[in-house]
Amino acid sequence: MAESNSGASKGTTAAGSQTVPVVIDLGKYSRNRVKKLRKGSGVILEDAGEAIAELQADGKIDAKCQPVVLIVREKPKSGKKKFKGVLPRFMKI
User: Which of 13, 21, 23, 36 is the Cys-Cys partner for 42 at CB 3.0 to 4.6 Å?
Assistant: First the structure.
């Protein structure tokens, strides 16, 4: 589910002084799950932790500090429109 893109092995550039950020795309989630992520809890945070732990175990990122960028997209709302007691103009009684 998670894809990563690390520019160099062990997160260092050719100069060796800077670390390259790792980009992890977690995909699309519902609006409520994205809200919980912003508050610091929920399913997405657990998924992100698992993805980072997997990358550390594979040796693709350092166990030390390295910038990690998470990309999470919000699913669009459904196309259903509810009329809350209001009739459209052409249906006036």
Answer: 36
